[in-house]
Amino acid sequence: MSENGMFESARRDPAKKARSSADRTQLQTVLLRFSRHRPAMISLFILVLIVLFAFVGPFLWMWDHTVYREIPSNQPPSGTHPLGTSAAGHDVLGQLMRGAQQTLKVAFTVSLVSTAVGSLWGATAGYYGGRVDALMMRVVDIFLIVPLLVAAAAIAGNSGAGTNWAAIALIIAIFSWASIARVVRGVVLSLREQEFVEAARASGASAPWIILRHLLPNAAGPIIVAATLLVAVAILAEAGMSFLGLGIQLPDISLGQMIGSARTAVSTRPWLFYPPGVLLVLICLTINFIGDGLRDALDPRQSKVRR
């Protein structure tokens, strides 16, 4: 290659890199940033393993969480029962799979319901502003000052919803959406005067269309982060309710119920207490690290992910 050819090639390379960077979609940029966040990637891998353990494991394990009559009770970990057996003769590993499954189902349901309700409520308040905003945010303030665990446990105790995980999830969601509503409302307040919103108004678009089509998609970053962190909050809330005997109850089971049932046997039968306790902490830690990774990846001001 001639000297002029080499010079031209070197001069075109920066332009080619610039075009490649410009062609990269926002989603690809977010995924790239998230993939470089090592704690978040490790946590995501661990969480996937936990989900597989909870939802696929019961189909592969020989002992169902409901089987107890043909199993010796209070047995320490062994080859047949790697995590031992309970006082009633249940296989602890089988119970752990079912408990993790029910806890995760409650947490993910709470996150989805609370995110949907909170996003619509906050976006509506932020878009209309004025008296509508003031009234709607007073409702949010009321829900925020009510202790989540106390209120949810009180309703669950009076309604007898402990045998239905969906009912427990709905009760927790009733007192969880307000935090997301406040986040979304703050974002929408900063977006509603933007040019693309003004253009939509000028074209005759209705308020619901503007909220659903323009405002909420542009608030997706904070919503995703808040929804992710809400999973951990829901897990702890369900665990607290079950620990108090007001959450998921027998014949079903959850991690919180397993911890509550074994709290008096920590020193004598530790295999009943520590597996669900460690798994509960591990799930919450992985969720928080994933939330940190999403926050960093979705932050438009961030040019370099913390390593």
TrEMBL record:
<feature type="domain" description="ABC transmembrane type-1">
    <location>
        <begin position="100"/>
        <end position="291"/>
    </location>
</feature>
<keyword id="KW-1003">Cell membrane</keyword>
<feature type="transmembrane region" description="Helical">
    <location>
        <begin position="42"/>
        <end position="63"/>
    </location>
</feature>
<dbReference type="Pfam" id="PF00528">
    <property type="entry name" value="BPD_transp_1"/>
</dbReference>
<feature type="transmembrane region" description="Helical">
    <location>
        <begin position="223"/>
        <end position="251"/>
    </location>
</feature>
<feature type="transmembrane region" description="Helical">
    <location>
        <begin position="271"/>
        <end position="291"/>
    </location>
</feature>
<dbReference type="InterPro" id="IPR000515">
    <property type="entry name" value="MetI-like"/>
</dbReference>
<dbReference type="GO" id="GO:0055085">
    <property type="term" value="P:transmembrane transport"/>
</dbReference>
<feature type="region of interest" description="Disordered">
    <location>
        <begin position="1"/>
        <end position="21"/>
    </location>
</feature>
<dbReference type="Pfam" id="PF12911">
    <property type="entry name" value="OppC_N"/>
</dbReference>
<dbReference type="InterPro" id="IPR035906">
    <property type="entry name" value="MetI-like_sf"/>
</dbReference>
<feature type="transmembrane region" description="Helical">
    <location>
        <begin position="140"/>
        <end position="159"/>
    </location>
</feature>
<keyword id="KW-0472">Membrane</keyword>
<feature type="transmembrane region" description="Helical">
    <location>
        <begin position="106"/>
        <end position="128"/>
    </location>
</feature>
<comment type="similarity">
    <text>Belongs to the binding-protein-dependent transport system permease family.</text>
</comment>
<keyword id="KW-0813">Transport</keyword>
<dbReference type="InterPro" id="IPR050366">
    <property type="entry name" value="BP-dependent_transpt_permease"/>
</dbReference>
<keyword id="KW-1133">Transmembrane helix</keyword>
<dbReference type="InterPro" id="IPR025966">
    <property type="entry name" value="OppC_N"/>
</dbReference>
<feature type="transmembrane region" description="Helical">
    <location>
        <begin position="165"/>
        <end position="184"/>
    </location>
</feature>
<dbReference type="GO" id="GO:0005886">
    <property type="term" value="C:plasma membrane"/>
</dbReference>
<protein>
    <submittedName>
        <fullName>Peptide/nickel transport system permease protein</fullName>
    </submittedName>
</protein>
<keyword id="KW-0812">Transmembrane</keyword>
<feature type="compositionally biased region" description="Basic and acidic residues">
    <location>
        <begin position="9"/>
        <end position="21"/>
    </location>
</feature>
